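Bit of a strange request maybe. I'm writing a small parser for structure token strings and I need a real example to test against, not something I typed by hand. Could someone generate the tokens for this chain?
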Amino acid sequence: MEVPRRPQPSSFTLPLPKPASSALSPLGALEQISKKDVMKEKFQETEDETADTDEFEEEIFSTEEELNASVFVEAHAETSELLDTNTSTGGKNVKLSSQDSFSEDSSISEERLAEEAEEAKKKSEEEEAAAKDREAQRQMLAIEELVQSERNYIRLLEISTVTIKSNLQKLQPPPANLDSMFLYIEDVIDVSSRLLSLLDQKQVQPGDPLFLKTLCDSFLSLSSDIEAAYKEYLANYTNITVVENSYKQKEALWNEIVRVIKSSAPEVNATSLSFFLVMPVQRIARYPLLLQTIQKHTERTHPAYALLEHAAHTSIALNCRINEYKRFREVADKYKKTETLSIKDKINRLNTHSIAKKTARLSQQIKHETGIAPKLVDEEFDALEGFFYVLEHGILELLENVETYLHHLQGFLACKTEEFDLDMDGEKAPICYKEITTALRQWILPTFEKRMRTLIHKPLCALRDLLVGPRNLIRKRLDKLLDYELIEAKSTLSYEEQAVANTYRTMNTLLLNELPRFNGLALQMIWSMLGTFSCLHKDLASDMEQLFQSFAQQLPHSSLNPSAFWKWAESAVLEGAGRLEALCQSVEDTLNAPAVQPLSPSSQRRLKQLTDKHGSGKIYQVMETVVGSRDLDLNLARGELVAIISEADSRGDKRRWLVDAGGRRGYAPCAKLIRYHQATEDPPPSPHLTPPDGVTEIRRHSYTPESRPLTVMSRPCFQIMAAYDFTARETMKFLLRGAASSCPGAQHKRGNPEWSLVEA
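Reply from user aminoacidic:
Good idea to test on real output. This should exercise your parser:
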């Protein structure tokens, strides 16, 4: 910018009068010349200062005005002084003319400065407007980039899920675990499509000021759905890379996959599935960058600026939560696995670090049990853990009952009673029975069993398998808690100790967040399966009722009214139940009847020999066949008689007795020997005394000499063998194993026919 310069002193023309007597003296001329030189020097200094300050714009104007004003004032003062000294007459007129000339020059300079200032202001306003236009253009470009990249992103994902996946499934054989690679990608496509549809519904172009507000509102309304879709996909992305690496290990399969990818998407230079499947991982991280770029080029006075700032912060928080969820899932996947290691593998895994860690945990556990060290208590987690174990017990119990139910149902179906000849040909009831049982076994019950397995047994088995993961996490959380307690009191932690603390906090937070959801879903599934169980039985009853009604008209009692029919049915059922009970009782009596085992002549001779030699109290009978397995052991047959010599062997073992088998001596197990009681012809007197004829009553504790002696009624006795071991539980009962003597008619004192009075 050029600074206007002040006119030189030589340009001033002062009309001075020249009287004859007013000639200048030499001294006055010198003073005038010297003053002019001083004025020139001051002008030169002013020009130098003005040249140095040309780079500054608005400050230069004020500086120039001050300098010009001061120079003009000094020049005016010096000119006035010069005129006062050199003129004696007419000085007043000269002074007035110089003032008019100065005021005229000053007004011209001020006008120029005002014009230049106005031009500078206008130029700065133009520059500001141009800057605003550039920012608006950049904002519109950023918005268009977000929208257009979202459309291209959805297009490529649809190519991968529709075209490429369908073509890969046509391979023979199709790649294994192909569906797991595209897991959750449909949810990602759905939420992105909904975001674009919300923008398209408003019918607002990116250049419209309302478009930014619409974009922010759409993103914020779908933020929860975006998080739900992307966090599951990103948590599963590790599995995608594992499956793809397994494909790469098979060269022929991988070459075929690459060929399918290139032929399905020729416009995209892709050579692997990860080219498409990594896009959601990259896209969720680009949302904060794109929104922050739009925010950077948006004025703070924009109506949607606050909403845009909120959307940018929400996108950042969304990424943080997704990363945290992915970290939780990695920890869960690491510790919930169940490894089946052999003893050799477990021994190979042992090292000094693992031994020290397990020893420290055991020591801490002992301190908790003995009360030496306090235990960290988390009431919220303890309540969740207790409820989880209750659910686990209920699920396992229900599964066991369902399996037992299905086993009994299979047993019922295996019993094909309609195939037996009941020797009742020609009667309607057996014919109807055969047809009904055939329909039940071939149609109704197999359908019921299939539905039971599909709707109840299979979900219960899946739920039982899902219990393994939380159970392992709870157990590992206890181990990490013991490690955390050891380092909790330390002020400074090493890198490894910090990792241990972070692992415990992560597992604890994960269980506190996920275990309530798991418990709620498991409980909901149990209630649903119990309701399904009831509905299945209701359908079974409806099918059976429909089947029986079709045969009801063929039965002989179908003409009876309902009350009479139910009366007849009740009596028939009770009569059949009585006959069945009688049959069962007769079978039981036959099975439990005591077996009389008379002695053979050789056994009688051995019994007499052993009794004479050892006494009757030492005689025992063998209950089961004894096969010797050690030195000096005897081989004895069931029912053989032996005499006890010693109730312990040479080493003091009381389980092996030394016996005499009628010439042979050796050891036999005492558990297979019972004391023998010989059945006598004349048994001991019966405790049941019969009073003599004519005596109606005999008083207790009285003695009547004239009374006739009492008659003893003897009953025949015989030897019986106990079919099962009997252990006494009440008085008047004793331990019975083997033989005993019994008298017919000696029953229970209260008349119970199931008990007999015996002598051991």
